């Protein structure tokens, strides 16, 4: 299963699931990618690091999800005036935007012809690369705004509609450039990066003991997923496992996060189709869940619940009865609303066939997570790479094949029920014991991964330690990176007024993508 | 034309202008209840108008005089329409000037100006909304005409007051041809007033908007007038519906003293309460149609109205 070129050079890597690491040269970098593509492996993420202070080179890393392992491929780029590495975008299209982002932050380029900026919106000078170690991120630069070269579409009656980054509703910023004929969408081009906060640079100022707080805030709706991924990374590096009681509680919180987001999305999807009844009902259920979170975990959105070594708050005494009762009520209410959604003609007419993402396209673009599962991509870290406690839970894979808005709605409904089942199972066997272990400062120069299946898809934190409990480099990956480009394909041939519904059915994170 | 009928005319217009936001508020309230939300107060639309009138206008730098004139034209046309429609009394001096076909022309005038103003600034959204509104409009107007023809055939006149008079002379139970026409009329009313299932007046998604997209660039007193005109349009449509299908209680010629008028107002308010609740119910139960289903929807309205005509001719009813 490992590509022949690297078979003998693999070394073990600290992670919360089986993982290997390999260092390759320029040629192997591409060869490995091609071999992996041929065996249908998922490309997850890539990031660069500035190691000039240590050994006068830059490094670029790529992470692949194999059938049962995680592979990190590392490539060393000598320090020159314009350091380059071969582009992976022709093999894995999802890499294209990540490579542009790596260039914006570190100045290491590919041989790709698309050299437009992705994260840099003229907020810092062109020749400055903020993630390099010799750059002071505190410095402010005047914004020198320039037009972005969108790909033009020519033809009789073709015109452009520009939407965003400021929208009519209170939502995150992103720009969408439509080329349309009448109401029909010929092409959509996204421009993101408006919420780039320099999180990778911020991590370098954090200690290993506080990084989880920043991780939880990368994308607020995935607080548990990100902070768990961070904690898993630091725990693997220090080789301390978290107490069993704490892992159970973490999983409980993760499933609560999944249910809460799915409830919110289902309501919003109804509302975007003009069925406001759905929004009020699902919002009520979500609010009930958030209030339960407050009672059980001490936080509505579960920020800072997962901490290195365990969790912050133990279950209160009355938790068991309260939660079991709540799950039963929730299950009944969701089932009732599902029947209403399924039987509502007007709603189903909007959902079906809208924003269809064929399985072959999804496969090619590397769709992951919820959106991937709605297009028949059967990948779920909880099932394929179960980390504790999912290895003992046996979660079921939820999958649909049609890839339209209706399929993404069905996946959400099914995942809510599956999550409720998991919550019941977790709650039945909460082991006694401590909820926190002690995590010592890690040795310097260690790399560790934490991977967690958040509600949107796999979330990754790659952590590289520095001396005395500091963080040398920390890369956070949000599944939105892979899935944003999918929308550009899913809307083709659809009509303009259906875009908001299609976009909502993916509900990707701007903040997570922009970093 | 006596002073009394002028006073009556004036009070009809004043009543329409004053009640229209209240009717919109009532619908919003019913809709909130049906969605199990706590409802905004009934007077919320008035508060909105007061707020908007107290603000400073922000005008796009490319705005032409047409853009600035349109809110006044819109409001003016809707007030004029209100003067023609026999909402509480039939003996209206204005109503003799224009018949129901002219009334449709007045609504069309308003639509043309709003569409032009929407395109005036040159943003993608205004143009998008204008062309969608034109599509809905050119399909809805024939359907509305067909509905009116049903009534014309029954009364032998194209003037709304004589329709009402004819009914009160022969107080019929629901006429079969009018039943078809009534369903068609409700469908047209929803489409023409940018309600679900054609448009969603409460949406924040700019790409799905029709009416809202056209007025995105308006602010302050301009926006207030545009909103008020929309409320008036809905109110006018409701009153046309009452005049066509449930004309009971409207003070007819010769029997329109002060007491009769007061009674007519009371009846009107009851009708508005019921109609508003019914409208909210329809809206709460349906989802918004895909925009390309709108032609099917309006063709259905047209077909129903034509069926009404056929029924009238075949049954002689």
How does this model look, in words?
- The complex is a heterodimer of chains A (515) and B (317).
- Chain A is α+β, with helices and mostly antiparallel strands.
- Chain A folds into three domains: 4-106, NADH:ubiquinone oxidoreductase Nqo5 subunit (Beta Polymerase, domain 2, 2-Layer Sandwich), CATH 3.30.460; 157-197 and 483-515, Enolase-like, domain 1 (2-Layer Sandwich); 241-437, Cytochrome-c3 Hydrogenase, chain B, CATH 1.10.645.10.
- Helix content of chain A is 40%, strand content 17%.
- Chain A has helices at 26-38, 52-55, 95-106, 199-203, 211-216, 223-238, 244-272, 276-297, 319-343, 345-351, 359-365, 369-374, 381-384, 390-393, 405-428, 480-490, 499-506, 510-514; strands at residues 11-12, 14-15, 19-24, 42-51, 57-65, 70-78, 158-163, 175-181, 184-191, 306-307, 310-311, 447-453, 458-465, 471-477.
- Chain A has a five-stranded mixed sheet. Chain A has a four-stranded mixed sheet with strand order 2-12-13-14.
- The model of chain A has no long low-confidence stretch (mean pLDDT 94).
- Chain B is mostly helical and 317 residues long.
- Chain B has one domain.
- In chain B, 72% of the residues lie in helices and 0% in strands.
- Chain B is built from twelve helices and no strands.
- In chain B, helix 1 crosses helix 3 (65-84) and helix 8 packs antiparallel against helix 12 (294-315).
- Chain B is globular.
- The interface between A and B is medium-sized, with 32 and 28 residues.
């Amino acid at each position: 299963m490992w590509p022949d070129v690297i078979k003998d050079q693999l070394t073990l890597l600290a992670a919360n699931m089986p993982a290997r690491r390999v260092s390759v040269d320029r040629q192997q970098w591409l060869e490995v990618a091609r071999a992996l593509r041929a065996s249908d492996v998922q490309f997850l993420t890539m990031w660069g690091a500035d190691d000039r202070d240590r050994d006068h080179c830059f490094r670029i890393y790529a992470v692949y999800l194999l059938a049962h392992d995680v592979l990190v491929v590392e490539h060393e780029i000598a320090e020159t005036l314009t350091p380059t590495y071969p582009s992976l975008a022709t093999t894995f299209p999802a890499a294209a935007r990540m490579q542009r982002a790596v260039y914006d932050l570190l100045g290491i380029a590919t041989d790709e012809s698309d050299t437009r900026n992705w994260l840099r919106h003229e907020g810092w000078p062109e020749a400055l690369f903020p993630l390099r170690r010799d750059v002071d991120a505190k410095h402010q630069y005047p914004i020198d705004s320039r037009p972005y070269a969108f790909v033009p579409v020519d033809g009789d009656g073709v015109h452009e509609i520009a939407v965003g980054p400021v929208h009519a509703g209170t939502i995150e910023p992103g720009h969408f450039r439509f080329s349309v004929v009448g109401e029909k969408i010929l092409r959509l081009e996204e421009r993101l990066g408006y919420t780039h906060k320099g999180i990778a640079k911020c991590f370098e100022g954090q200690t290993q003991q506080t990084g989880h707080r920043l991780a939880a805030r990368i994308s607020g709706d995935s607080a548990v997923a990100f902070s768990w991924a961070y904690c898993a990374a630091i725990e693997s590096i220090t080789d301390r496992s978290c107490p069993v009681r704490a892992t159970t509680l973490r999983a409980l919180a993760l499933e609560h996060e999944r249910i809460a987001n799915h409830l919110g999305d289902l309501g919003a999807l109804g509302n975007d189709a003009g069925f406001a009844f759905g929004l009020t009902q699902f919002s009520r259920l979500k609010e009930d869940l958030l209030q339960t979170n407050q009672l059980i975990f001490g936080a509505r959105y579960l920020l800072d619940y997962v901490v290195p070594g365990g969790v912050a708050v133990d279950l209160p005494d009355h938790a068991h009865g309260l939660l079991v009762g709540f799950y039963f009520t929730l299950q009944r209410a969701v089932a009732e609303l599902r029947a209403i959604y399924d039987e509502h003609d007007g709603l189903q007419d909007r959902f079906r066939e809208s924003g269809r993402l064929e399985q072959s396209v999804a496969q090619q673009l590397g769709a992951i997570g919820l959106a991937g599962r709605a297009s028949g991509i059967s990948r779920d870290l909880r099932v394929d790479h179960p980390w504790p406690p999912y290895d003992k839970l046996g979660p079921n894979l939820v999958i649909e094949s049609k890839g339209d808005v209706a399929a993404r709605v069905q996946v959400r409904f099914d995942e809510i029920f599956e999550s409720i089942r998991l919550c019941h199972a977790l709650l039945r066997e909460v082991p006694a014991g401590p909820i926190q272990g002690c995590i010592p400062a890690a040795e310097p120069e260690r790399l560790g991964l934490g991977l967690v299946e958040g509600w949107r898809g796999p979330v990754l934190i790659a952590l590289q330690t520095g001396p005395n409990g500091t963080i040398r480099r920390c890369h956070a990956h949000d599944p939105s990176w892979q899935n944003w480009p999918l929308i550009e394909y899913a809307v083709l041939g659809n009509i303009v007024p259906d875009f908001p519904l299609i976009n909502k059915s993916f509900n990707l994170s701007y903040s997570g993508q922009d970093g | 034309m006596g002073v009394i009928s002028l006073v009556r005319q004036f009070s009809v217009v004043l009543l329409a202008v004053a009640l229209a936001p209240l009717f919109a508020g009532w619908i919003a309230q019913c809709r909130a209840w049906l969605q199990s939300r706590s409802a905004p107060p009934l007077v919320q639309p008035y508060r909105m108008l007061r707020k908007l009138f107290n603000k400073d206008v922000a005008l796009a730098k490319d705005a032409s005089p047409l853009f600035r004139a349109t809110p006044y034209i819109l409001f003016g046309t809707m007030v004029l329409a209100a003067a023609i429609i026999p909402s509480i009394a039939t003996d209206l001096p204005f109503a003799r000037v224009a018949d129901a076909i002219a009334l449709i022309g007045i609504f069309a005038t308003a639509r043309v100006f709003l569409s032009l103003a929407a395109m005036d600034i040159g943003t993608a959204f205004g143009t998008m909304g204008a062309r969608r509104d034109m599509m809905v409009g050119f399909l809805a107007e024939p359907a509305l005409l067909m509905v009116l023809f049903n009534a014309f055939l029954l009364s032998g006149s194209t003037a709304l007051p004589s329709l009402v008079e004819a009914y009160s002379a022969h107080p019929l139970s629901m006429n079969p041809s009018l039943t078809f026409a009534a369903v068609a009329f409700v469908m047209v009313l929803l489409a023409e007033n940018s309600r679900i299932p054609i448009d969603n007046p409460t949406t924040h998604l700019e790409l799905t908007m029709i009416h809202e997209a056209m007025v995105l660039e308006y602010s302050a007193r301009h926006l207030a007038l545009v909103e008020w005109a929309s409320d008036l349009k809905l109110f006018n449509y409701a009153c046309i519906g009452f005049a066509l299908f449930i004309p009971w209680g409207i003070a007819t010629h010769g029997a329109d003293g002060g007491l009769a008028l007061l009674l007519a107002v009371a009846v009107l308010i009851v009708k508005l309460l019921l109609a508003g609740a019914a409208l909210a119910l329809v809206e709460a139960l349906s989802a918004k149609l895909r925009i390309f289903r709108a032609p099917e929807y309006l063709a259905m309205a047209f077909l129903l109205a034509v069926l009404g005509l056929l029924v009238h001719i075949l049954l002689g009813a």
